[in-house]
Amino acid sequence: MAENIKHRSSSAGSASKQSQRGSPKRSASAGKSRDATATLRGGAAETKAGMPALPLGQRENNRNSFNAAKARADKEAMAGAATLRTSTQLSSRRQSGSSQISTSTKTSGRPGRGKKKKRGQNDPIQVFNENGKDVTPKPLSSLKPTVLSDKLMSISAQSAEGTEFVHSVPIYSRTGFSVTSTAGELTPETDELGTDFDGLESDGQEFRRSRRLGGSAILETPRHPKRKYAVIPAPIVEVTVPKVLRSLSPSEIELEKPIPIIITESRNCIMLNMRGHNLNETYANYKQVMERNEKYLQLKEAKLGNLDNYTANISQTLFSLLKNKEAQASSLSTQSNSIQVNSWDIADSVAGKVKPDQYQPWKVVQHGSKDHKTTNPTTTVVILPEIFTENDGPNVTPPISPPESRRQSMASRKGSTVGGYSRRPSASVGQQSRRTSLASRRASTSGGMSQGQGLDDVLRLMSPASAVTGAGSAGGSQGGEPVLLEVDISKIPGLLKALEHIERACVLNTYHDRLLDYMNFRAREEEPPPPTPPPELDKDGKPKKKRVVKEEPPPPLDPLAALKEFEEKEEVIPKVILPPLEDSTATVHSIWDFQCNVTEGRNISCMSWNKMNRHLIAVGYGEFDFGKQRDGMIAFWSLKNPRYPHAVLPTHSGVTSVDFATSSPSLLAVGFYSGNVAIYDVRNPRDLEPMVKSSFATGKHADPVWKVQWVDHATEHGEGLVSISTDGRVSQWSIKKDLEFVNLMKLKKVPSQNKGAQPQPFISRRSAGLCFEFSKKDIGIYLVGTEEGPIYKCDRSYNEQYLMTYIGHNGPIYQVRWSPFMESLFLSCSADWTVRLWSEDQTTNMPIADVWWSFTHACVFAMASTDGHMEMWDLHLSVMKPIVAHTLAPDDKSLLSCMMFSEEAPLILLGGSTGVLYILRFDGLLKEETEELELKKLKDALAASVTRHGAV
Amino acid sequence: MGEVETALKRILDLEDVIGLLLIDQDGSVLRNTLPEEHAKKYVMEIPSLTIMCRSAAREIEPKDELQMLRIKSRKHEMIVVVDDKFTLLLLQEYPGFWIEPPPPPPTPPRDSDDEFFDDDEDEDEE
């Protein structure tokens, strides 16, 4: 190599006679870089020598030297170009010789040709500026000549020995350097070599050899004619000798022409600018620094004379040495997501309603297996929310209709391109793939990407809105069937509530008409009144109380109604059919039954309206009989769902009474058969435990609680709970701390009213209370119905004695009710077959002394009261009013004690206490002709007005 | 059987309920008791409707939220409960709902038998 360079530089120098400074001037493109490097090096040396550089300003110096070298190279390139032009015109021998090399490399069929050609192709392109300067970029990297010289020598020697050529850029630079230093003294020899060219001009191979010889002279390699020589091709842009030109076709000449490419020089950009730590005068802040130093010196001198403990000292601080290190970092990966939101979506996320993970519109999952740790954006598949990407290959039946199948194929093609490399067995997706057939079908119809099996883990659409959007974009239906999946749906939050709502909505639809009926909306025409249904009796023969019946309250004074109630109440085995009053328009028909499997077979013991929500009923279930006791239950029936209770509270003991509070409507007081009183807060129907409950410690009842009722004590502590039990206590409970009670009354037995009977010792001194009711007129007054029969009127102020005792019933009194209209009236019902209507203040009913059937009229009887009062009744006409009421003269103080009809005449005999026998005649009674007709009349009267028993 | 299943069974036991469809947030069918052809249609149609209604409800009152959708058609009542996590659809049908559609207007009897013949004749001629 080096010899070539030597030769060429020397030849160029000899041809142009411009090699004044010893720097080789050449037109060769390959040599250009060598030249540039050489001059660069030389320039660097010059710069170093000539410029007083700061010790730490190496980089700047380097840059300067580089610029200088570049400028110099430009200059030289221009000179070289000039040389080129002159040489082409003069067609000097040496130029022709060198050109011959280039042509010979192309024409000769030598074995090394291919390599040479390749070499020629690798030659850098020359670049000229508008002035003809060669501004071919030079290699930036260079090696220190001192380091490489020895190595290169050996390489060149080897190449001279065996290889055809060895070529590399560092060698160029290195040789360039060496040439620079030695060109001057070698010039004569190249001249001498040039003479060799003359003789060998016709033979390219020989010429190469001669070139080689020229080089070997420098490197002192022995000449050998048979040796293979490394050949450096001549520059492509050479202009050649006419003789050679003749052998070339014109097109080839054109090919050989240099193609000028105009390239303008761009601005220098400073890649790195570091200031040195040392200064010289050229720096802008030189003055300032010097001044500061001056000041500091002055300060030091001033300090020296002071009294302070000041000592001048010199210390060296360490620079923090900066170190620049290049590191390679992975390229930034970017992803872009987008989603369409509504304004309320934004509002939700601002308000924090939407959890970020919940509303994540999509989840971008790395495509491919888990070993793809790097987030390379190219492997990330971002799929818009409109597109469902699940697909469970085997489950999806291919679509049938042609257009859709086309779409499907498109989608699958897309899927194969996009998700192709994620096709892996979807074993990991298990459940997901099972429940995605529908979604995937949607995905395929919506023109989305139907991706591979593994794609449902590519993304899960989290947002319901987007899911629905995706569903909405789905077009027509698809083949395949919705797969019914046995997924555990009990964990879905809110589903139970939704089911409840939907059930109610559904049932309300079903019951719409009946609910209208219930609410007394008579939008439609009145249906013809159905025949009065027989009272439904359940197993125990008791009428179903749960049947909600809209009915006009029976006229309170109607004994028929009383009789009816009595007959419903009591166990009357034969079928009772009461004829309604002729002029009655009241009808009763069934609307619906509150019943369900939960309450089946349980005895309804009590019920209570909620005071706030009038459509909510609390129904207590519990057995009355001691022998049948079982657990109880409270069911809350609501109009919103007549098919199933709103909530069910199971209880340990049978429920005997319930009552909703008025002031806080969610409180439900419950009395149990066990004697306990509990208060439930029913706001949370799932809460099965009572809020408070009585216990032995707090004094529960010893016997079943038969009634609990919230009583509003406006003057005292608000609303209190009152309970009554067969243990004789009427207790008021307060829930201030725990459930505490105060006894309003301890019911004491009263001696029998029967004057004649001997007073018998009481087994229990307490009278068993069964029911009570507070008066609406006076909140302190209440009635207590007892098991023995008497009804007591009590006052809360006196817990020892009764205000009044109403004796009439013989059996246990199950209920007492004040009239809501007339405060002094109340009804009582009893186990003695009767319902009695009482007036609060009237207690003096006189005994009836005697009664007598008429001999002639089957339906007529008469009675005598002890207060001097005689009545005649005709069952046929009325059972309410007597047909005749006769009172003795006011001044007659006689009490009637007996009476008698006459068989012969329409006469009544009355006997009184004063010894007077009164004889009365009655007229106007209708009489049938025969006794049979009279009997029939009586039967009709009974059937019409009272009752018709099977036997009668 | 859990509470949910019990409630579900109770609903399905109602006499006029055709079926119930439970779709989860991803559009997967969790429960379906509808006939297949019905289910497909409802799955296709209803969610788009719910999203529209939901959007409308929110547009009208931004703090509001759609909860239930009831569609009363001539034959059915669809009750749709919309939730974040699922969509529950119930299809109800009962005779009380069925309003007999007005009979289609009687097609005017083609008194133009002659025309038919004419046409035929024309065709024959052609």
Key terms for this structure?
heterodimer, A: alpha+beta, disordered C terminus, B: 126 residues, alpha+beta, Beta-Lactamase, 3 helices, 39% helix, 24% strand, globular, WD repeat (chain A), cytoskeleton (chain A)
Overall helicity of chain A: 25-40%
Largest sheet of chain B: 5 strands, antiparallel
Multimeric state of these chains? heterodimer
Major sheet of chain A: 4 strands, antiparallel
β-sheet strand percentage of chain B: 15-25%
Shape of chain B: globular
CATH superfamily of chain B: Dynein light chain 2a, cytoplasmic
Mean pLDDT of chain A: 64
Strand order of the largest sheet of chain A: 1-2-3-4
Number of strands of chain B: 5
Give the uncertain stretches of chain A in residue-range form.
1-61, 80-121, 155-224, 357-484, 533-563, 569-574, 948-952
Largest interface: A-B, 57 and 57 residues
Explain briefly what this protein structure is:
Chain A is of the alpha+beta class.
Protein model, in words:
The complex is a heterodimer of chains A (952) and B (126). Chain A has 952 residues and is of the alpha+beta class. In chain A, the strands form 7 sheets. In chain A, strands 1-2-3-4 form a 4-stranded antiparallel beta sheet, with no helix packed on it. Chain A is built from 20 helices and 26 strands. Helices cover 30% and strands 16% of the residues of chain A. The N terminus and C terminus of chain A are likely disordered. With 126 residues, chain B is an alpha+beta fold. Chain B has one domain: Dynein light chain 2a, cytoplasmic (Beta-Lactamase), CATH 3.30.450.30. In chain B, 39% of the residues lie in helices and 24% in strands. Chain B has 3 helices and 5 strands; from the N terminus they run H-E-E-H-E-E-E-H. Chain B has a 5-stranded antiparallel beta sheet, with helices on both faces. In chain B, a hairpin with a 4-residue loop joins strand 3 and strand 4. The longest helix of chain B has 25 residues. The radius of gyration of chain B is 24 Å and the shape is globular. At the A-B interface, helix 12, helix 15, helix 16 and helix 17 of A face helix 1, strand 1, strand 2, helix 2 and strand 4 of B.
